[in-house]
User: What shape does this take?
Amino acid sequence: MPNVTAELWVPVEADLAFAVSQTTGEVRLRWDPFIRSQHLVDAVQPGKGVRTVTRARVGPRMVSEYVSYRPPTSVGMTMVDGPWFFERFGGGWRFTPEERSGVAGTRAVWKYTYAVRPAWLRPVAEPFGQWLLGREIRSRIAAFARACGDNTVLAAVAPPAA
Assistant: This one.
């Protein structure tokens, strides 16, 4: 199955980077360029087995399910219902503590895996998917990196002061 990957380093610890990646509501809409709307289904917080409904800014809607949820290191999702042109779609985000030039931070690696339908369209659609999804994931992870430096986003995910 084809896949696209993007990675970068952010100067925040892994638990904070993970928390930013899992924001919802107005906080998520503040930074995520892909999402027009998103909500959890019958849940108040993400977790393994929880479903989300996401509508992309360009229109398509997808219902996905968390197949793994391991704060602060990784999250994985798979499409349950989505656009007709995806036979399968999944995403995984990993967060690894990594120091650079004496600064504590996190290496974030995001990956999408997909299959296009109908099968006869794959020779044309999959290269287009590589380009489009590659552009989208790079834009999205860059926005995530900016969010890791956005005081409004960070305040929304910071643990309450003791």
Observations:
- The chain has one domain: 3-157.
- The chain has a mean pLDDT of 94.
